[in-house]
Amino acid sequence: MFENISQNNVYKNLINGKWVEAKNKNTIEISSPVDGKFIGKLQALSKEEVDEVFEGSRKAQKAWADTPVNERSKILHKAADLLEENAKELAKILSREISKDLDSSLSEVVRTADFIRFTADEGMHLEGETIGSDSFPGFKKNKVSLVTRVPLGVVLAISPFNYPVNLSASKIAPALVGGNSVILKPPTNGAISALHLVEIFNAAGLPAGVLNTVTGRGSEIGDYLVTHKLVNFINFTGSTEVGKHISEISKMVPVLMELGGKDAAIILEDADLEEAADNIVSGAYGYSGQRCTAVKRVLVLDKVADKLTALVSERVKKLKVGKPEDGGKVTPLISNKSADYVQELINDALDKGAKLVVGNKREGNLVYPTLFDHVTTDMRIAWEEPFGPVLPIIRVRDIDEAIKIANESEYGLQASIFTKNMDDAFYIAGKLEVGTVQINNKPERGPDHFPFQGVKSSGIGSQGIRYSIEAMTRLKAIVLNIK
Ligand code: NAP
Ligand code: G3H
To answer: Where is the Aldehyde dehydrogenase domain (predicted)?
Structure first.
């Protein structure tokens, strides 16, 4: 199934329907974060090749937009079936490439097949409306506005390392069903998995040029892609730093951005503490904390703080640490640089007097799950996104102090509230400056047809199947004037 995408572990790009190597022969060597072993080489495309990709995409988009949506949808259904058939193989590749535990790797792929199928169906229900003129003062029934949705054109999709399959497909599928062509710039760590996904779309029968890829380091080719004159929409997921940079240079091109987070879990006195602890631990340490929606701080009412800390600590000690192939759940981080950053935050918390409950052990890029209690707001870990397995517990006096600290963050992705009192839950939920509030559950993106959005430095716009299709299409009105 995947024989065309590489030769001797040298991976190619899909450009105008063909898997090709870069003309300049520039490549990037990729090794596994699990053990540093070589896994393949990627092409680093030149600016001239990027121009070719954009021109091909633009041309292909016109015919794709004219293709009936039921045919576009059929191709996506086929892609979902192929992805499911190849899920185990792709999960193994993903697990080695980004050091994700095997169960989570498989669930990422299966969830993606479900996502594509749901999108194929949702695209069939993209309907417009007719609006009569007589509801506006001074007008009679002499005009009708026929409002439909039309594609934007060429969508540039840029995905991050932590979900290279799911967060590539969550841009590609809604864009395609809406009649756009797509250029995918996958993350350098994660590109091999993403290229497999792209071959699945290709094999499902997409016409040449409708889906293309550009590999290469974002720091080298990113600005050129983002500011290209033929780009019509940028759908980006990644760090706030890169997201802000892109939104500064992209000027009038519309963007959808999913960025960093510092999701708080707020624990009230009447919470089911066992349930809260289960959610906190799976939320904070799943994929070693490398999830945008990870629980990245706990704000707990003083009265139950000792008990909660003990329950969380008990669970953290049981987490299996090690390589994915040995059943590790907390696995080596994506790079040494990431582990250095996490260590910096740990050291700062220790220096400023936080109480280390578990962890602060490291072997290269493997950081053991670390839990701090009595974290205070002068510590970096109270505010920065570690993207690693370290969790601060901040004790608060009352609900209003929890809300205040939660909202002082520059981020606003999600937050959780654990309580049995729905009046309190709704009071807090109403005050939190985030895209989504979870009551009695950890922050999480799914189910993937729910709207998913960050506010403040966590993003711009809403994803989620229908919302993504709407974001990558626009309204077009034709006004019928009746004599
Ligand atoms: P990143 O370093 O910002 O990279 C994201 C993507 O942007 C990669 O494909 C990267 O390519 C590319 N890139 C880098 N510089 C670029 C530029 N100047 N122009 C265009 N593209 C450029 O983020 P990451 O480390 O992969 O992902 C972790 C971050 O993503 C965390 O902050 C996390 O919270 C956030 N995230 C947010 C969500 C959400 O839904 N809100 C979901 C997942 C992740 P290279 O890989 O080649 O550098
Ligand atoms: O990393 C960001 C992902 O969008 C989070 O998805 O909540 O399902 O892990 P998740």
So the answer is: 19-478
* Residue spans in the chain of domains classed CATH 3.40.309.10: 264-447
Q: What is the pLDDT of residue 160?
A: 98
Q: Which of 388, 280, 376, 409 lies closest to 344 in space, CA to CA?
A: 388
How do residues 255-273 score in pLDDT, each as one tens digit?
Answer: 999 999 999 999 999 999 9
292 lines ligand 2 (CB under 6 A): yes
CATH number belonging to the domain at 6-259+459-478, selected among 3.40.605.10, 3.20.10.10, 1.20.1090.10, 3.40.50.2000: 3.40.605.10
For residue 313, report the distance from its CA to the centre of ligand 1, in Å: 31
Best mutation site among 159, 282, 445 for ligand 2 pocket (most ligand atoms within 8 Å of CB): 445
Residue nearest atom 6 in ligand 2 by C-alpha distance? 445
Active-site amino acid positions? 258
Domain range 264-447, CATH class: alpha beta
Rounded Cα distance between 375 and 306, Å, is: 13
| DSSP strand pairing (370-373 vs 355-358) | antiparallel
Tell me the per-residue pLDDT of 6-60, one tens digit each, with 9 for 90 and over. Answer: 999 999 999 999 999 999 899 999 999 999 999 999 999 999 999 999 999 999 9
- DSSP E strands, 159-210: 181-185
